[in-house]
Amino acid sequence: MTAPIQTKEIQAAFVKLRQTETLCQLPDFALRKIASTATWKSLRNRQFLDAGDLACNIAYLSNGILKLEQGGKVMGEISAESERARQPLFRINTKGLSAVCVSKRADILLVDKEICEKCLEDAPRQAEQHADGELSEEEELLFAEIMATFNSNSVDLPSLPDIANRINTAINDDRMGPREVADMVRLDPVISARLINMANSPIYPSRFKVTSLNDAISRVGLEAVRSLVMIVIMKNLFGSDNPEIHRRMKNMYTRSVELAALSQIVAEYQPILDNDRAMLAGLLSNLGIMAILVIADKHPDITKQRKILDHSISGLHGTIGGMLLERWGFESDFVTAAKESEDYSRDRLSVPDYCDAVISARIISRVISGKSYNGPPLDSVPALKKFGITNSGPKGFLRIITSSRARIQGAMAQLHGGN
Predict the structure, then answer these.
(1) Is residue 294 within 8 Å of 270, Cβ to Cβ?
(2) How far, in Å, are 35, 139, 246 from residue 144 at the CA level?
(3) pLDDT grade, residue 19 (50/70/90)?
(4) Which of 26, 158, 233, 399 could form a disulfide with 30 if both were Cys (CB 3.0 to 4.6 A apart)?
């Protein structure tokens, strides 16, 4: 049987992963991530495990003795104490290749293949980001428990308010247009007023002043409406009376607005992307951090231990952000940006997507602000290449910011509420 993993089992999985031939090279925070999503499978004498049933997993023998068989022919025997047990149980997952338990009991650790491959790919970059101290054994257990809670989907994450849910649905429905969206927005006076204000701002220059909600939505576009709705929701949905959590939320809110404005500017370098959609992708890309802070606010033992909170945010925010956006019904563009926009080596497509726009915006923001940048050389970042700003470097980034300063400041002011 396959058992859902608990805290003690996570620690046992972590210990086993440290003993493996390939995964042992990963830093502890990556091993904890793999361990928290793993499962254990126990076999009794003469029970077997078929390699063909493990297309998405890598199996490691942790206890007992197994005999490998295929078509009735014995291929070899593996003991948990042997050097061979440091390697995956099956080198290829072929149907008919099986591991038969020849001891009283055998325990097998099943780890997610995709997560392992991603951790190995990201290891050099993330190791530098986590270089400021490993967790103690007690902290490791608490961190693993947090990860297991999130990965089990048992976390009570915030629900998307009705107005945002309805606008989300409308934007993805070809039968809906500005008039229908205006009818929805009209129910919220605050959002209505801010939309009219946005439509008359320098971001959308025009000789004519907008006075009606319908005209405002027609001018700014549906994606900009959705961005404004989401920033209002983020400001109201995520709050805390805890000074530390409140400080972090306020900082993250400001960073998200800045990232949204920069993502919009970067998207202008590629006409195949919608600028306002890129702005929303940037705005939502840190949503996982906000959600983790909400959960931490309800658990004082996490809030008090900043190192654990920092590691939780670093290890989980992409997964949680993507999970929350999927739950809220957002399209895959936004889910991908939340999950992958801190992977500076990301190169999924030959053409740029919205995640690439957010990655570029992140890099520009970090370099200009003087924050540490641990990615590949700027001239080899795939995302920057796709927007033709690879060779810009710090001075080039500064020119981009300077030439677009008015629009960036205008966008940030409107997202912040015109203050």
Answers:
(1) no
(2) 8, 8, 25
(3) very high
(4) 26
Residue 117 in tokens: 């491959």
Which value, in Å, is the radius of gyration of the alpha carbons in the chain?
A: 25
CB neighbour class for 407 (10 Å; exposed up to 12, middle 13-18, buried from 19):
middle
> Residue 238 gets which letter from DSSP?
S
**Spatial distance between the Cα atoms of 371 and 262, rounded to a whole number of angstroms:** 16
In the chain, the domains with their CATH numbers are: 2-151 (2.60.120.10), 162-416 (1.10.3210.10)
Residue 154: pLDDT above 60? Answer: no
Token duo for residue 362: 């992140």
Question: Are 97 and 55 a contacting pair, CB within 8 Å?
Answer: no
Look up residue 349 and give its amino acid: L
The DSSP line for 381-400 is -HHHHHTT-TT-HHHHHHHH
Cα gap 107→115, rounded to integer Å: 21
Q: Percent of the chain beyond pLDDT 90?
A: 23
Other Cβ atoms less than 10 A from the Cβ of 41: the count is: 18
**Cβ–Cβ < 8 Å for 349, 318:** no
- What local confidence, expressed as pLDDT, does residue 141 receive? 57
**d(C-alpha 310, C-alpha 316), whole Å:** 10
Phi/psi for 51 (5° steps) reads: -60, -30
Say if residues 288 and 318 touch (Cβ distance below 8 Å): yes
